[in-house]
Design a protein that fits this description.
The complex is a heterodimer of chains A (116) and B (114).
Chain A: E1 4-7, E2 10-13, E3 19-25, E4 32-38, E5 45-51, E6 57-58, E7 67-73, E8 76-81, E9 90-97, E10 106-107, E11 111-115
Chain B: E1 4-6, E2 11-14, E3 19-25, E4 32-38, E5 44-50, E6 55-57, E7 60-65, E8 70-75, E9 84-91, E10 103-104, E11 108-113
Classes of the chains: A mainly beta (116), B mainly beta (114).
Chain lengths: 116, 114
């Protein structure tokens, strides 16, 4: 149980275009989802916390207008990287938790974004 | 100063040997601590929680030292499959707090060699 999927697993896009990444909880309802970014040889950095039906809370330094997050249902959250630039190339990972459950976050397999 | 700091390594470990490494955290109010394992180009996976009394899971032993604000991980009888990056994770909330924000350390890379 507690499986989280992400789609796509990898994507290459041209500079200036937008890319949407989906995060789904397959066998549980996720009231809270988190989006992380990981650059090569660096750790995961939390970008934003997303609660179903409400606006995402962004971490300091993360542009909310550039990284659009939508958590429209209890099983789906999307991250859209708008007007992507090469410096946005990174590994984007989502995780999900259930309400009333403990600390544990279930991670998706990640999406590798390359902007050319 | 980073909230969670780790020696990036790599720690080159002969197969069968023991390896140990630490992680320090800056927020004395932190309540929950974990070790995650991350393989190359994969998502992190929970290895074990860390309790004040110390805990063991097979070949893995984790310790928490609140006074000095560090946690440790020890791997005994290292296997080739233990090669990975080990991420130290800290949260401000208690273990039952849903939706806790996790703060990750930079990771310690371990390479187990035959």
């Amino acid at each position: 149980g507690a499986v989280v999927s992400q789609h796509p697993s990898w994507v290459i896009c041209k500079s200036g275009t937008s890319v949407k990444i989906e995060c789904r909880s397959l066998d549980f309802q996720a009231t809270t989802m988190f989006w992380y970014r990981q650059f090569p040889k660096q750790s995961l950095m939390l970008m934003a916390t997303s609660n179903e039906g409400s606006k995402a809370t962004y971490e300091q330094g993360v542009e909310k207008d550039k990284f659009l997050i939508n958590h429209a249902s209890l099983t789906l959250s999307t991250l859209t990287v708008t007007s992507a630039h090469p410096e946005d190339s990174s590994f984007y990972i989502c995780s999900a938790t259930t309400s009333g459950n403990s600390y544990e976050q279930y991670f998706g397999p990640g999406t590798r974004l390359t902007v050319t | 100063r980073k909230e969670v700091e780790q020696d990036p390594g790599p720690f080159n470990v002969p197969e069968g040997a023991t390896v140990a490494f630490n992680c320090t955290y800056s927020n004395s109010a932190s309540q929950s601590f974990f070790w995650y394992r991350q393989d190359c180009r994969k998502e992190p996976k929970l290895l074990m929680s860390v309790y004040s009394s110390g805990n063991e899971d097979g070949r893995f032993t984790a310790q928490l030292n609140r006074a000095s604000q560090y946690i440790s991980l020890l791997i005994r009888d290292s296997k080739l499959s233990d090669s990975a990056t080990y991420l130290c994770v800290v949260t401000p909330g208690g273990i039952k707090a849903a939706g806790n924000k996790l703060t990750f350390g930079g990771g310690t890379r371990v390479l187990v060699k035959p």
